[in-house]
Specification:
Helices cover 41% and strands 22% of the residues. It is an alpha/beta fold and 217 residues long. It has two domains: 115 residues, Response regulator (Rossmann fold, 3-Layer(aba) Sandwich), CATH 3.40.50.2300; 91 residues, Orthogonal Bundle (Arc Repressor Mutant, subunit A), CATH 1.10.10. It is elongated. The protein binds calcium ion.
Length: 217
Amino acid sequence: MRILVAEDEKAIADLLAEGLRRHGMDVDVAYDGAAALACLAAGDHDVLVLDRDLPEVHGDEVCRRLAQSGATVRILMLTAAGGVADRVAGLGLGADDYLAKPFSYAELVARVRAVGRRRVAPIPPVLERAGITLDAPHRQAYRDGRYLPLSRKEYAVLEVLMRARGTVVTTEELLERAWDERTDPFTTVVKATVSKLRARLGEPSVITTVPGGGYRL
Ligand code: CA
């Protein structure tokens, strides 16, 4: 999941970014509203963690402009004011969720994950990475031009890994994104599917196991 943290208090911004990275997220940081908009225009972010009271371009205005431009990034707004009126105003401007400071770190991570899951990212018709080509409209995969006969789940896992573009995807995220129902709470099914996918992709191996329960391609 790719995140942009927009917060003008640098110490807080960097702390939030560091914490989200520890949860396997790919995090950029902007210290004002103008920088946030520029960063969003240049990257394919899933979630914007947006401090409402931002210099240069106010958080409300950032929301407004994103809504106008049809951006698909999901917005989690942070604000010092926890009043109902502020909350309603923020959501009315296009924020997907709202968190009043001070908040618990666990709650932030949970909310970021929840709004990120709601994003419907534009799917590029063809994804290419490390010699692997994914033809998304036809759900077919190739390695160096050779067709790969993948099961539905193997394809889904490969697509999630390729869309992460080299960032770590946790086992939990794979379960959420590639499986419709959580039929196996012990995540052994993910491990087994990745293992089969590796065999199908052949050598040299392109999927790296990351200590702590994740994968990257
Ligand atoms: Ca602020």
